[in-house]
Amino acid sequence: MVKTSKGYKGIGMNGLIAVWYTQNTGRNIKDYQRDARRIAETLPAGSTVLEVAPG
């Protein structure tokens, strides 16, 4: 049997890290919503977005 490796090294997003992430991103929710609206305006009608990631 072949063992596959995960695509990243490090710990997952759960527990204390998830709490920290939520607290930090929650402060910027208005910015995220503004950016999402701006992106949505550029998409053709009927389009769907799987995920928007920074970077």
Explained architecture:
This protein is an all-alpha fold. It has a domain of 29 residues. The protein is built from 2 helices and no strands.
Concise structural overview:
This protein has 55 residues and is mainly alpha-helical. The protein is 44% helix and 0% strand. The mean pLDDT is 84.
Topology:
Elements: H1 16-26, H2 29-41
Number of helices: 2
- C-alpha geometry: flat
- N-to-C span: 36 Å
Instruction: Give the oligomeric state of the chains in this entry, treating copies of one chain as homo and distinct chains as hetero.
Output: single chain
Evaluate the radius of gyration. 16 Å
The chain-level mean pLDDT equals 84
Low-confidence stretches: none
Helical proportion?
Answer: 40-55%
Largest sheet: none
Secondary structural class: mainly alpha
Name the helix and strand elements from N-terminus to C-terminus, one letter apiece: HH
Number of strands: 0
Fraction of residues in β-strands? under 5%
Task: Please name the defining characteristics of this protein.
55 residues; 2 helices; mainly alpha
